[in-house]
Design goal:
alpha/beta; globular
């Protein structure tokens, strides 16, 4: 049976690389992006016949429904839903100086957007033989690792806490799905140099970050309800 994957926020960075790596493994990949022009350009530059652009703004409920309709025209099942789209708006802003509006905006995309993507696309993931939902997260969202100084040192209240909420969402859905499937997991690629962090130097390349995501996404091991980094399961 043909395998299908949907990757959000995929016109650049890690998302773009995930699309390429899955397309090379013969998945039909839906490349999700908010901006139609940039999304179409990304599809063209990849040059795969098995990559299709789907416009989706995950902060917009109607946009998510439209994206579902477009995917459903092509397939009744989705083997992989990779919730890669996310924003980080509070670099270099102290928690005490963070504007409420900025905090809300981050949650609107990272948490509520991811939640809606899961809820809307769940029927398609359930129809796949071994459907999986992957939520991109950050090691800084692990309260344990961040507290111990084992994660990045950026005290970004907005970004980190919205991803901690995504980890909680991963756990909750994982409890619901149990052993019957589908499988949901959170994965952090670790520090990766992308537009998200202003291309901060010293991180992995987007391709290397994507490899970690794809490796766990395609793993035979069931990590339902867990969060992982390149080495395996990490603490909450």
């Amino acid at each position: 049976m043909k395998k299908f994957a949907f990757v959000t926020g995929a016109n650049k960075g890690i998302g773009y690389e995930i699309v390429q790596q899955l397309a090379e493994k013969d998945y039909h990949v839906f490349l999700g992006a908010r901006n139609e022009e940039l999304g179409q350009k990304a599809v063209q530059s990849l040059g795969f016949v098995n990559v299709t652009f789907v416009q989706v703004d995950i902060s917009d409920t109607q946009s998510i429904q439209n994206a579902f309709n477009k995917v459903f025209e092509v397939t009744d099942h989705l083997d992989l839903l990779i919730n890669n789209a996310g924003i980080a708006l509070d670099f270099n802003i102290l928690p005490s100086e963070l504007k409420l509006e900025t905090l809300r905006q981050g949650f609107e995309v990272n948490f509520f957007g991811t939640f809606q993507m899961i809820q809307v696309f769940l029927p398609l993931v359930k129809k796949a033989h071994r459907g999986k939902i992957v939520n991109l997260t950050t090691d800084m969202a692990s309260q344990t690792m961040f507290d111990k100084g084992e994660a990045g040192q950026l005290n970004l209240l907005g970004y980190n806490s919205s991803k901690t909420a995504v980890n909680s969402l991963t756990l909750s859905f994982g409890k619901e799905f149990g052993t019957n499937g589908p499988e949901i997991l959170g994965i952090t690629p670790g520090f990766t140099t992308t537009d998200l962090n202003g291309n901060a130097p010293g991180g992995k390349t987007a391709g290397e970050g994507a490899q970690i995501i794809v490796k766990h996404a395609l793993s035979e091991t069931n990590y339902n309800g867990k969060i992982l980094n390149s080495n395996g399961i990490i603490p909450w």
